[in-house]
Amino acid sequence: MRHTVLTGDRPTGPLHLGHYFGTLANRVKLQHDHTMYVLVADYQVITDRDLPGEIQRNITGLLLDYLAIGLDPAKVTIFQHSAIPELNQLLLPFLSLVSMAELQRNPTVKDEIAHSSQKAVSGLMFTYPVHQAADILFCKGTLVPVGKDQGPHVEVTRLVARRFNERYAPVFPVPELLLGEAPVLRGLDGGKMSKSRGNAIPLSATADETAALIRKARTDSTRLITFDEVERPEVAGLLTMAGLCLGRSPVEIADEIGYGGAAQLKKTVTEAVNEFLAPIRRRRAGISETEAREVLRQGNAHAREQAILTLDEVRAAMGF
Ligand code: TRP
Asked: Please, where are the H alpha helices in the chain?
């Protein structure tokens, strides 16, 4: 079956290895056999902060990350919220399909509120999952490859699609969630790899930067390296990272290191990550910022045509 795949990222900073194994690898695979849209979710940046920050710089960085990992602009439509008014307009009818109670019990939203440094929680914080339904449904997306935290949002999208179809006319497919198969990647401190925790290896890091980051990674003082997720999460995290980069089992890598201790472990991880990132770095070096921006301009034009068609269909189904 040919899917319409929709996924995206907030342009709040560079993508890292956790993103790669969690969802980006899936995208690179899926682009060959499916219709694919990748969203630079710029309007979503202001859900958990007051200002968009260095939004233009972050958008350019995200575009370079996408192209560097091998997303092919001839196959994938890369676009941004702020360039597609008709997508944003879908939010209004979609909001009429969900209750306040449903908005308030979204576990990912609750978690983001708990971790937000904002003084007040904005209305957008509660409604952005419905905006995300507009992201997915404007192109009639059928498959959404994302991390586990995005599951509740895909549930909202499924609810919106079903309710619209029941209340008005069968306009939307009910999309499926596709989770990455890789285990959640731990960052350099043993916690979940995340840009906000400062424990990530960005895909754009140079070989030297990568080595410096791994040198500072937390480990323990037991010389024999073993893969133990519970007792030794930091060491296990590094072994998992090396394993994913090398396409090998972390247990096997631990056995090879044996009594080499943290020093040998870090050397192995650094080599594995740098080897893995080498082709990504090569591709990035071959793309200019101007070219990256042009990819977005063309993607925006294409996505907008699609959004206009869907909004027309929605209005007609509703009788406006
Ligand atoms: N919320 C996603 C994130 O924070 C980004 C996103 C916005 C998205 N719209 C989407 C993901 C639609 C999948 C589908 O990473």
From this structure: 17-19, 25-30, 55-69, 85-89, 91-95, 100-104, 107-115, 123-137, 151-167, 207-215, 233-246, 250-257, 261-285, 289-318
What's the mean per-residue pLDDT of the chain? 96
Question: How far is ligand 1, taken at its centre, from the CA of residue 216, in Å?
Answer: 31
> Quick one: DSSP state of residue 49?
S
Q: In whole angstroms, how far apart are CA 283 and each of 26, 68, 166, 182, 196?
A: 18, 5, 47, 24, 26
Measured CA to CA, the distance from residue 146 to residue 7 in angstroms comes to 7
Q: Could you read off the pLDDT of 81-123 as tens digits, one per residue? A: 999 999 999 999 999 999 999 999 999 999 999 988 889 999 9
Q: What is the pTM of this model?
A: 0.96
Reported as a single tens digit per residue, the pLDDT across 151-208 is 999 999 999 999 999 999 999 999 999 998 777 899 999 998 988 888 999 999 999 9
**Single-letter residue type at 146:** V
Best residue for ligand 1 mutational test, from 150, 193, 195 (most atoms within 8 Å of Cβ): 150
C-alpha dihedral sign at 285, 286, 290, 294: negative
Atom of ligand 1 nearest to the CA of 141: 14
For ligand 1, say whether the CB of 47 is within 6 Å of any of its atoms. Answer: no
Question: Three-class SS of residue 144?
Answer: strand
Candidates 249, 244, 30, 44; CA nearest to 128 is 44
Give the Cα separation of 149 and 55 in Å (integer).
23
Q: Cα–Cα distance between 205 and 184 in angstroms, integer?
A: 20
Residue 276 main-chain phi, psi, to 5 deg: -65, -40
For ligand 1, the distance from its centroid to the CA atom of residue 254, given in whole angstroms, is 35
